[in-house]
Design goal:
The complex is a heterodimer of chains A (111) and B (182). With 111 residues, chain A is α/β, with parallel strands linked by helices. Chain A contains four helices and seven strands; from the N terminus they run E-E-E-H-E-E-H-E-H-E-H. The chains are: A alpha/beta (111), B alpha+beta (182). Chain B: It comes from Mucilaginibacter oryzae.
Chain lengths: 111, 182
Amino acid sequence: MILQTSPLNNALVATVQIKEGNMALADEFKTELLTLIDNGNQYIIINFEHVIYVDSSFLGALVSALKHAMNKGADIAVVGLNKDIKSLFQLVRLDKVFKIYTSAQQALNGA
Amino acid sequence: MKKFIFNNETEGIYPLTLQITDYIKNIAKHLIDDDVSFRIRTILIELLTNSLKHHNDHVTQIEVSLKNNKLYLKKLDKGNPLQIKTTHDLLKWPLPAGTPAKSEIAVYGDDFGTLKGRLKNSNKLEFYTEDVNLQYVDREVINGLNEHYGLMIITRASDVFKYEYKPGTGANNFTSIIQLGN
């Protein structure tokens, strides 16, 4: 399992357990996220605090999951991004698409 | 010029990225700030990931050179040549002889911008992006988002990013150039 989940009030915090978000794990990451959405979770906070980097495949999986979430009336926020990952989001303009917060608690308050 | 060999295994991506970045910091210490360092790491991760997708069991070589304050990151492999599926065609390198030079193709894009390529000749392509300063993001924009970011990331992180196919050897060369300092 890539994602370890725990409820936080009306949200679900999904903590990414791997250090490298790369092509080898992108499909599994996407499948787990889609399952969480299909299980009826309305607000998923993805916690990247353990992740050193993500590549384009991982970003693609994240975008795909966001589309699925929106079409199911759910939403996704991301937290715990290190400086490189945050810069990568900005580079591909995903900072304008995803709700980005420092912590899960902040994401909860901003929901 | 310094050569590095990538074994085309996922586990090797990050260690090699750090190794090459450290080498560059050593040869151009005063020219590498945090932003440039991020750009180098990002380009290397995507170049190596691109190799994993297309390498066909061949090894990949990364060449690093510094000339006139320009950093060259070149990836060479003999995997599958570049293929780009545009709206109308599937372009496979080498392109047919007689392909008009300076033709522009849209590689992929969404409401935030488009990755484009400018053909230099039937073997060379230079990537660039056309960006849109989108003010409002709604569900329609999100549903239309591109999910392929590899070449887009390298193009945006580079000052110049180009591809060349070598017909004689079947080699693919991707070259990213970063201007360091002024």
